[in-house]
Amino acid sequence: MYDISMTIKKDMLVYKGRDNLRPEIIAFRNFDNSDVHQSKLIMNLHTGTHVDAPLHMLENGDSSNCLFDEKPFYKSHILNLTSANEKITAKDLKKHEIKPDSFILLKTQNSKPFYLQNNPKKFIYLDETGAEYLINQKVKGVGIDSIGIERNQDNYPTHKKLLKNNILILEGIKLNKTPEGEFILFLALFKISGSDGVPARAYVLKKDEINRYFK
103-139: per-residue pLDDT in tens? Predict the structure, then answer.
């Protein structure tokens, strides 16, 4: 089993390295002024591992409430796309078998050591043609190993086309230690009402592992 979630911390990777997007964990009670230690988290809902609600990009899109009935387990396929430069296109995706109703996880150069730290504004992304191809393959969702699924595209076509077709967008996953192949994705979403994004905890595991855990 692989934990593919990002750790929430002050110096974590954030979208394009923008300091104003970094989370804050503030202890407002401690043992100097109280008999307990208590903290609060100030965080953009698109920090770290998270799912975009349609409202994020569509003016009349559904809020996070539409995600409440989602089941946490998905048939998933990690695709090795580390040879792609700058972006992932339909041409890149056509080299791989993509099954309907699967949750596709894109492993790119973003997963290479220090790539995102050194190139925060030039992360590998899924372009419009790649989004259209996945829509035609009738996938359930698509995840990527960067904080954003697209950049440098006017009017956010990758986001909008996926969300209009009810395809889940999972951003901020860590795939540096995971091999390519078929897995079960366990995706637990925070139950936050009326929001445009939802933080998540995500794991991938092989099908036979589930049986072992329950023995």
Answer: 999 999 999 999 999 999 999 999 999 999 999 999 9
Closest CA to 111 of 172, 184, 46, 48: 172
Supply the pTM of this predicted model: 0.95
In this prediction, residue 209 carries a pLDDT of 86
**Token pair for 119:** 């190139």
Residue-level pLDDT at 105? 98
Query: Got the DSSP string for 133-188?
Result: HHHHTT-SEEEESSS-S--S-TT-HHHHHHHHTT-EEEES---TTPPSEEEEEEEE
Domain containing 58 equals: 2-213
What is the tally of structural domains in the chain?
1
Q: Which amino acid is at 75?
A: K
Those residues with Cβ within 8 angstroms of residue 90's Cβ, 6 or more apart along the chain or in another chain: 129, 130, 132, 133
Based on its alpha-carbon atoms, the radius of gyration of the chain, rounded to whole angstroms, reads 18
How do beta strands 168-171 and 50-52 pair? Answer: antiparallel
* CATH number, residue 14: 3.50.30.50
Q: 16 and 2 in contact (C-beta within 8 Å)?
A: no
